Amino acid sequence: MGRTLIKNAILVTMDRATSDLKTGDILLINDRIAEVAAHIKADDAEVIDATGMAASPGFVDTHRHVWQTQLRGVSANWSLFQYLAEMRTMYSVCYDPNDAYLGNYVGALEAINAGVTTLVDHSHLQISEEHSDALVKGLVDARIRGIFCYGVYRNPKYTPGQEIDAASIVMDIAGPIEDFHKQNALRVRERFFPANDSLLRFGIASSEFFTFPSIEPVLEELAWSRTLEPARITFHAAIGLNEDVSIISRLSKAGALGDDLLLSHGNCLTDDDLALIAREGGWLSTTPDTELQMAATFPVLERVVRSGRAPSLGVDIVSNFSGDMFAQMRLMLQAIRFRRNEQDHKGTLPSSLRFPAAKMLEYATLGGATCVGLENDIGSLTPGKKADLVLTRLSSINMAPVRDPVAALVFYANANDVDSVWIDGVARKRGGQLLGEQWPGVERRIQASRSAIDERFARIDSDAMRRAWAPMWGLKEVPV
């Protein structure tokens, strides 16, 4: 904290007021951006020479299951059914509170290392009070901005090694919220988020509404969630999996839409649904990697743009994908371009592209900020906003000699190119290295945690678990 003067940066501010500045200086005072200009003098400030670096706002990831950090690569070849059966009902019960802490702590560090300064943690690992406290503490200790969304998902009540009883394991996941979750969510809210205005805010991650037989329990759960005044209520929506995709129209009829809702995915939402959301409230998070792998329909982001609503991007599952936004931006951009070329040209040679790279960078920063209700505080390098910003080196072998800094960030950069990160005016990465706890010690702890989780997982009869879950999703043959 104090006064920091960033000199000679290549500016990618995402602010139209400074869009004509190609290079310039940024003055940080305490937790705020005080000035952005071609030349700034501040004799009493720490001076950082950002020559050859792009200065941009921190990325905002609006949908991530941070606890899955120890499971990198396990779902690389999974279908959505395999993910639901194995991740949500097998791997989840293999975590003890220490594992939960490390998953969130190291997962948040991974995000910061890649220039993500704000994330929405859809945290459906609320197995016990100890797990919940550890998950919150992991994010707090990492000092990342975000929303901890307490998940009311009905986690299986068994331990690895027990015999699989399909009737008890495949519980009524569409039933009322468990009393444990009602009491524990309130406890977490009061203990860690009494004012809900700090760096990390409280939210709710709802049940899987696509499993509910009617709208009434959905409305009851949303009404209960709103008694806790969460910063956001997030839920998986309209993925196209055995679900009634008319939930938006029914929420509208009940007067239950609102800007406190953050829907993840939404691939199967109709244009009429998106118009209702734009008119009555609600936001969308698109996660290109998971949706292109596991969903049966195309990501909704471009249709959200056409509805007049700000879209956003998320990483989703770090058990399958890297925790950076660079990959999500380029994958979504190129998928949209392919779809447009396919639809508009029908086999003829495209003569131009109509979706610029700069828009995707906007959605990964200011768009995300808007979707989490912080557009007046973060998302652009604007004087008066919070000092959440990133310096990205343009001199690496994969970057030099890039002419366009936007192209550099969208198409060429990776986490190793991120030189410096500030969150709320506090430096979290400098000179390419995270500040604070040294990585070798953290790496040993996360490796040991992964080994313990794997050992517990090996005790589970995974074939029996898949057979128990297959009928629920209408599957006659169980994937192996």
Features:
single chain; 480 residues; alpha/beta; Urease, subunit C, domain 1; TIM Barrel; 2 domains; nine-stranded mixed β-sheet; nine-stranded parallel β-sheet; 15 helices
Helix content: 25-40%
Measured on Cα atoms, how large is the radius of gyration? 22 Å
CATH fold category name of the largest domain: TIM Barrel
Regarding CATH, which class of the largest domain?
Answer: Alpha Beta
General shape? globular
Strand content: 15-25%
Overview of the structural elements:
By secondary structure, the chain is of the alpha/beta class. The chain has helices at 80-87, 97-113, 129-142, 166-169, 179-192, 216-227, 247-253, 271-280, 288-294, 301-306, 325-345, 357-371, 405-412, 439-457, 462-469, and strands at 3-11, 23-29, 32-37, 46-49, 53-57, 59-65, 116-123, 145-151, 200-205, 233-237, 261-265, 283-286, 311-313, 316-317, 389-393, 418-423, 426-430, 433-434. The protein has two domains: 3-57 and 383-434, Urease, subunit C, domain 1 (Roll); 59-371, TIM Barrel. Strand 16 (418-423) and strand 17 (426-430) form a beta hairpin. Helix 2 (97-113) packs parallel to helix 3, helix 2 (97-113) crosses helix 14 and helix 11 crosses helix 12. It is globular, with a radius of gyration of 22 Å.
